[in-house]
Amino acid sequence: MLFTEKDSLVFGGNFLHSFAIEKQLQVAHIEELTRVPTKFRLPFFTELLWYVLDRYSHCVLGKTHLDLPDEEKKRIKLEKGENIDPNQEIFRIGDGGVNVVVTPVHLTPTELQGIKFIVYYLHTLPPNKKHVPIMLPDPISVIKNIRELVIEHRDDNPEKAITGKYILRWTEDEEQTPTKKQKRNSLNREDSGSGAKAVKKSGNEPKTPKKAATNSNNANN
């Protein structure tokens, strides 16, 4: 139950975002100190932190260390063929990880500070609680990439960082900018329109629609 002094619209639930990383880590630290039961915490919180670091490295620097376990690779090849790249099939990262950033990006001070806090938080955890995901077999290289990212973006312009567009993305569809989507929809509309014009010019308009329209008018009368 939640009590508020005034009528309020309250959003509840567990979710993470890039603009409150420090607070999220503080909450996790408090939960650890007060021994909050696991069932009341965000599931796989520490594992998610590793994936966040690798995702920033991939989307900003074009470097990723995601790698499927060998057993999983064998299973995917058995299902889809020996010639496929399992990592490409699952992660859509390309050969060796491609740089998905077309133009240079600026990170907000909140993001940059949050990334530093993640590294510090993971560093302070005991080895049995670092929970490095199995799909990140080289966590040291992930940390090195993040160090490179922080150095490259420490002088970013906060105003240029506010673009209304997200930096972290996962699927190929998300990598398309709204402009590209609009162009694609525009082309589809043009193609359908040109098809209609071609029918009119040829003079071979189907008679069935005309009869249907006549019947419809009669029905309205």
Number of domains: 1
Q: What percentage of amino acids are in beta strands?
A: under 5%
Secondary structural class: mainly alpha
> What string, H for helix and E for strand, traces the elements in order?
HHHHHHHHH
Structure description:
The longest helix is centred in the last third of the chain and has 25 residues, at 178-202. The protein is globular, with a radius of gyration of 26 Å. Helix content is 55%, strand content 0%. The chain starts with 20 loop residues before the first helix and ends with a helix. The model is unreliable at 94-99, 173-183, 195-206 and 208-221 (pLDDT under 50). It has 221 residues and is an all-alpha fold. The protein has one domain (21-182): Methane Monooxygenase Hydroxylase, Chain G, domain 1 (Up-down Bundle).
Short description:
The chain has 221 residues and is mainly α.
Topology diagram in text:
Layout: H1 21-33, H2 45-61, H3 70-80, H4 86-91, H5 109-124, H6 139-153, H7 158-161, H8 178-202, H9 207-220
Helix pairs in contact: 2-5, 2-6, 5-6
List keywords for this structure.
221 residues; mainly alpha; Methane Monooxygenase Hydroxylase, Chain G, domain 1; 9 helices; globular; disordered C terminus
